[in-house]
Amino acid sequence: MEELQSNPFYGVFNRQKANQFKKGNTTYKERLKKLDALKTALEVDYKQQIREALYADFKKPFLETDLTEIYPVLTEIKFAKSNLKSWMKDQKVDTPLALLGASSYIVFEPKGVCLIISPWNFPINLTFGPLVSAIAAGNTVMIKPSEMTPNASKVMAEIVSALYEEDEVALFEGEVEVSEDLLKLPFNHIFFTGSPQVGKIVMKAASKHLTSVTLELGGKSPTIIDDSANLEKAVEKIIFGKFTNAGQTCIAPDYVLLQANLKEKFTTLFKSKIKEFYTDQVELSDSYSRIVNKKHFERLTSYIDEAKQNGSAIVSGGTSNVSDHFIEPTLVFDAPENSKLMQDEIFGPILPVKTFTTLQEPVDYINSKEKPLALYIYSKSDKNIDFIMNHTRAGSGCINHNLLQFLNHNLPFGGSNNSGLGKSHGFFGFEAFSNRRSMMKQHTMGATDLLMPPYTNFKQKLIDLTLKWF
Ligand code: NAD
């Protein structure tokens, strides 16, 4: 207890705890009002500030900010607005005949005081997206955004303090230590988005208080292309998915598994599409982001250096500029299995390609690694698609495209095992921040009333009948 009281965030935590029933007992209309305020902030009042913040953080193009940061949160709000009334309704369920005289239902009650820890790569989207679900479910929320995108964190802090009282939503900027202190508090739920390594730290901290967790993690997401695919379209979409946000996307295609006979055509198409999208001087293109900081820039350029040294074929790109953390879209063939490119989550604009001849090879390769967050297939063959789907496991996927599964709020979003625990978006986000409370109501004298002690022969007969028939 003493340890908790000396925690710098204990005061706010306690005020939120005291406020939890007031927030939890709000009607759907009151919750929607809170979400509407966030909608107006993102759509109108702070839109330009958000764009400028992300440009300052890693030169993210305005259009990409609109599409990948603001739009997904607005659609999350829109979806909640259309559905919250029905999500909040108690769910009636059947009651077995043996419990005659009672009715049963499930109440979606708010978990209580929740913590959201978010990453830097889509800071607005991955902070306010879960916040929409948490508010929709009637919780109070404490937020720690990433220290790596300080401009985005600053504008989010401004928005939160303009829209919410500290005892309903509070945001804390700062370094990792802020996260560490917050994680010591006995939250009712933690929603973490970030790397599997830090996910383990979060889960360990949560276990001290048996706090439930949603872990939205990462890993290497494979992309398979077989020789029935429309290769031009596949290359175009992969370039979009891989180089949006300069590859710093959890569900970006991490590497490609390509049917061997497509190698030359793939390379030619890749080069021409890069030129078409970003001109032949990508560094001057307004449509291409930078790497978030020097640490990640050096990590990624070390992968390229390693590829140069170990004889991998860098068939396109490979240049970089430390002055503003630019790395050219880079295509690499034949990276050895023990290289960083094939072992680490790349999280940057480098695309390694491995070739295969039979479809069993990509299946075996994918299954030799941790379960991916997303798995993509480009193919016109239903048989091949089914084969891949039936012999692999992944958090999500898309056939003949990528990333788009994130934008459909009817789909649960999240990983499996190493790529995550629990789901978000739409109803699934609401559910993550809710406890399904099981309720039974006795209306009249029930069958079970006949079974109270003392246990007589007659009651034994009743039990015998129950065991046999109900
Ligand atoms: P990260 O795990 O380094 O950091 C995420 C958050 O955790 C940050 O707010 C950071 O301050 C905090 N943190 C870092 N170290 C901590 C520690 N020791 N103790 C407590 N908190 C700590 O991740 P990142 O670099 O911000 O983001 C990249 C990773 O996130 C990638 O692995 C990517 O795949 C994953 N990601 C997943 C999703 C998803 O929806 N599944 C979305 C975006 C990013």
From TrEMBL:
Organism: Gelidibacter salicanalis
SUPFAM superfamilies from the UniProt entry: ALDH-like
Coiled-coil positions: none
Annotated ranges, domain Aldehyde dehydrogenase: 24-437
Organism lineage string: Bacteria, Pseudomonadati, Bacteroidota, Flavobacteriia, Flavobacteriales
Descriptive protein name: Aldehyde dehydrogenase
GO biological process: aldehyde metabolic process
Annotated GO CC locations: cytoplasm
Gene3D superfamilies associated with the record: Aldehyde Dehydrogenase, Chain A, domain 1 (3.40.605.10), Aldehyde Dehydrogenase, Chain A, domain 2 (3.40.309.10)
Record InterPro entries: Ald_DH/histidinol_DH, Ald_DH_C, Ald_DH_CS_CYS, Ald_DH_CS_GLU, Ald_DH_N, Aldehyde_DH_dom, Aldehyde_DH_NAD(P)
